[in-house]
Amino acid sequence: MYEFLKSLQAQVITLQVRLYACQARMQAPTDSEALHDLRIAVRRLRSLLRPLRRQPECARLEEAAAALGQASGPLRDLEVLMAELQRQGHLELAGRYADDVRQGYRQLLDGLPLRRLLILLDDWPEECRASVAAGEWRMGEKRVLKYMAKQRDTLAEALRDPAHDRHRLRLLIKRVRYCAEIYPQLVGLPKATAKALRKAQGALGDWHDQLQWLTRVSAEPTLAVCAEQWQTRMLQAESRADQALLELLEHYPQAADPATE
User: Fold this and answer.
1) Whole-structure pTM value
2) Domain count along the chain
């Protein structure tokens, strides 16, 4: 257990350093990948801690990371929309969102979610040491393995649901994939399965983007110039996603029913 905690602390510190670097890059708003990289660091931190949420120190830190992820999501969506408009050659239209992005950066950098997460990250190592000294630390490799087994079973069940929700499947796939990536020594995800997860997530992500942009059109009529193309691409992404999900199903056989064992 102590070796596990030592490795866990090292990974948290690495991600903390990465977050500080992303924060500094965001202060110079010319770095178009700074926010994206910050969200990746937050995602990895959440994946690292989510299986350990029964430990209060981990739960607080994971909740703070989730709050920052939620706060930064709409801003990242706006960045992606700007990039899409630029790719289509609608430079003037893309430029109309530039001020909103810059303001969003300032609000995120000065906002409570980022400040709270960084404070908790500073305090977390000492809280862990105090928990170990008091005999209150309970988390180890078994907890991660149990969490991953549950996530695999949940994904296998959701993939077989004829009325499956693409949004929920995208979330479940991300949880399984990212946790496997952050704990490779424990999960040991086969390469073919990892590839199938990436393919399904990519197709669902493409579908999600087109859907989001189409949803904005009614509130922002200037985007209507892109609506027909987005509608076509959304339908194509739906088809690719459905095919990728069928392929992924082969990697996730249904969990055995305990009553039949």
Assistant:
1) 0.90
2) 2
